[in-house]
Amino acid sequence: MSELPRPLGVALDCDGLLVDTEKLWSIAEGEVFARRGWDYSDDIKAHFIGTTLEWTVSTMAELFGEPGAEPQLRQEITTRVAEVIAAQAEPMPGALALVSSLAGKVPMVVVSNSERHLVELALGRTGLRGAIDAILAGDEVEHGKPAPDLYLKAGELLGHQPSELLAFEDSLVGVQAAQAAGIPVVGVPTIEQDGFAPDFRFGSLADPVLQAWAAAL
Question: I want to staple 28 with a disulfide (CB 3.0 to 4.6 A). Which of 80, 153, 204, 205 is the partner?
Fold first, then answer.
């Protein structure tokens, strides 16, 4: 693995990267499946990780044979996930230390497919919000990840070229979005997904190499 760069700005995913919310989304989505007599297996879960809410509810409506049920499914999921985030969300290992080390050295923007109110809730609950300079949410762009829109907007917001930034992602669609925008990406996978190929890979944000890099910037 080559040496990590010294970026002029950092863009970080939220769910599964900074905050341990993927399992909380799984609770909400699993309940939606269970109410319809479906098993929410690991294979199905892997299918949804990192995707947009629009894609999620559209796919669920098709799976369940419920055409037109997308608004109801969206409400079911977001209401429940907000409840579990507010009660259970915790920072991912190393997240607080990494963000604390980067704060004041490079601007940080959280780039998430989730709706803004859920991102704000997760970051606020875990004590990460104060160190983050800005948030870009999935309900604020036309196309969420894996499209590059969120990351291109992050570059504009930070005022730097994509190659001058560094992204942090935990999902396949997140890595694809950052790379499509021309931004090198650190991958910290939540689960193994075929095709997951970041420019740099770590098992956790708590990795000593990653933490030392942040401290030395």
Answer: 80
CA distance 194 to 214: 29
User: What are the residue numbers of the active site?
Assistant: 13, 15
What's the pLDDT at 1?
Answer: 56
CA-CA-CA-CA torsion sign (40, 125, 153, 178)? negative
The phi and psi torsions of 12 (rounded to 5 degrees) equal: -125, 135
Task: Say if residue 94 is in the same domain as residue 84.
Answer: no
Single out the residue in 41, 66, 88 at which a domain terminates. Answer: 88
Tens-digit pLDDT profile for residues 142-162: 999 999 999 999 999 999 999
Tell me, what amino acid is at 142?
E
Task: Name the E strands within 121-208.
Answer: 134-137, 165-169, 185-187, 200-201
Q: What is the pTM of this model?
A: 0.86
Nearest in space to 90 (alpha carbons), one of 193, 16, 198, 29? 16
